[in-house]
Amino acid sequence: MQPFFRNTLLPLDSNGKPDLSFFAADCFHFSAKGYAEMAVALWNNMLEPVGEKQTYNNFTRDRSKLKCPNPEKPFLSTLGNSGFRNSELKSEKTEPSVPYWAVIVAAVAGVLAGSLLVWFVSGRRAKRCRHETDTEKNIRITSL
What we know:
This protein has three helices and no strands.
């Protein structure tokens, strides 16, 4: 929903090499400096209207790039207040794609099927165990 990290490039130092000060010792996670930059980018993304969101972070450490809500748009941007959904869609009630009773029926059927499978497997195992025990008894009796 917030595309600020989609096209982000690795931050570079003055020598053109990756600036490791933005990363923790494992070089994978961000350091406090890196998290601060990501927080600014995320905040700015939440204030930008849908369809006009920044898809990159330039790691400039420039606090003047931090955007603030203004009187025309004092809220975080959503699909609704960015003009991507009209008011008719909001007022309509939509039916869920799966009726609630179907979920209950599927759950009960799953429990029954699982119970039947366990009963069948344990019955076969018990029958096999009894057969092996009977065979051992027959071998002992015949060997005496």
